[in-house]
Amino acid sequence: MTTTTVEELFQQGLDRYSAGEAPQVLIPVFKEVCDRAQRNSPALTCLAWLYLLDGKPALALKAAQKAVKLNPQDPQARINLVMAMLDTAQKGVRPHIEIIQQLLMVPELREEVDKSFADGLERNPEWASLLKVKAWLDS
Q1: Within a domain: residue 66?
Q2: What is the DSSP letter of 22?
Q3: Over 60: is that where the pLDDT of 1 sits?
Q4: What average pLDDT does the segment 36-64 reach?
Q5: 22 lies in a domain?
Q6: Contact 45, 37 (CB under 8 A)
Q7: 95 three-state secondary structure
Q8: Residue 116 CA: distances (Å) to CA of 6, 89, 119, 126
Q9: Residue 53 located in a structural domain
Q10: What is the DSSP string of 36-90?
């Protein structure tokens, strides 16, 4: 029997997400990655995104807060945090938006975020918090 490493499990989860698998099916995969590697900011960022897609903003908020704490320079982690804050009626999104705007001055980061927005809107075209954050960042 072979043991799947955290890295392999994470990559399998990303591949399955890219193939269109449903968030509720993938949440346990990313939760396992996060449980096995508790300081894995990319996995926490992915988990927060999946929770948001699955309509679980309170769980997304916890995962996004951890991701931002581990990697404050990750714009996607902050975007997830802002969306979870909006969806749970939290205050204090403006400072995060301002930091994201500064981070997105790096073209590679902007490109990744734009891909993420496109993906999110393809999966959920009426995603209110995503549309709001995208409008703030595009202005």
Answers
A1: yes
A2: -
A3: no
A4: 97
A5: yes
A6: no
A7: helix
A8: 23, 23, 5, 15
A9: yes
A10: HSTT-HHHHHHHHHHHHHTT-HHHHHHHHHHHHHH-TT-HHHHHHHHHHHHHTT-
What token pair was written down for 61? 């908020």
pLDDT at 2 over 70: no
CATH number at residue 31: 1.25.40.10
Domain count, the chain: 1
Domain coverage including residue 69: 6-138
Structure tokens, 96: 């995060």
Question: What pLDDT, on a 0 to 100 scale, did the predictor assign at position 3?
Answer: 72
| 104 three-state secondary structure | coil
Helix (H, G, I), strand (E, B) or coil at 19: coil
Decide: 110 and 104 in contact? Cβ < 8 Å: yes
Task: Report which of 51, 37, 133 is spatially closest to residue 11, judged by C-alpha positions.
Answer: 37
